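Figure 6 in text form: structure in, sequence out.
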């Protein structure tokens, strides 16, 4: 089994995340992509009046109509800082040694890669995949990293939060069910 693992704050999840997952699924010939919302990210502060459970629910809503996508609550349920190496150990335990794990991230995280906890263990447990992201050129790629080119979509969770705070529309930037959840729960206002 070939399993893609796409972690992130998903604060909120948006079409860029979904396009990345869909294209990685096809280009890497994955059986499925598992979205893993972080509880507390180690490299950035969480913004907005959003609980981890809200981010988990939005992620579930976003992927519900794609049979090749799943959501894991492993990091949310851990109730501690989310380290990729710990998540990969859990996925290795769940899926066994025969599963091929593909840890997928965006090129925006490439510059800080060697500050990650036990990054060499991450490389041993998975194929480390970096996808292009607008504004973050894929350059100086370490030998342990593979790249995948996806359709560049200039959308970010940060921009979506700004739009919501200023009362602007986020229609078409997030799935409708996610937008409805945000509005119903008065998130990011």
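Output sequence:
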């Amino acid at each position: 089994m070939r399993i893609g693992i796409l972690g992130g704050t998903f604060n909120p999840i948006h079409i860029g995340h979904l396009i990345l997952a869909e294209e990685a699924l096809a280009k890497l010939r994955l059986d499925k992509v598992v979205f893993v919302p972080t509880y507390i990210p180690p490299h950035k502060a969480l913004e907005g009046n959003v609980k981890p459970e809200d981010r988990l629910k939005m992620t579930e809503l976003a992927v519900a109509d794609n049979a090749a996508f799943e959501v894991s609550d492993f990091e949310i349920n851990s109730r501690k800082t989310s380290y990729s190496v710990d998540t990969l150990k859990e996925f290795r335990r769940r899926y066994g040694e025969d599963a091929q794990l593909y840890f997928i991230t965006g090129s925006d995280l490439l510059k800080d890669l060697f500050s990650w906890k036990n990054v060499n263990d991450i490389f041993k447990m998975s194929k480390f995949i970096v996808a292009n992201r607008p504004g973050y050129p894929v350059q100086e790629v370490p030998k342990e990293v593979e790249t995948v080119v996806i359709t560049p979509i200039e959308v970010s969770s940060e921009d979506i939060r700004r739009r919501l705070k200023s009362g602007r529309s986020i229609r078409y930037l997030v799935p409708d069910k996610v937008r409805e959840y945000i509005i119903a729960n008065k998130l990011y206002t």
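Caption detail: Helices lie at 15-27, 52-63, 74-78, 84-95, 119-125, 157-165, 176-184.
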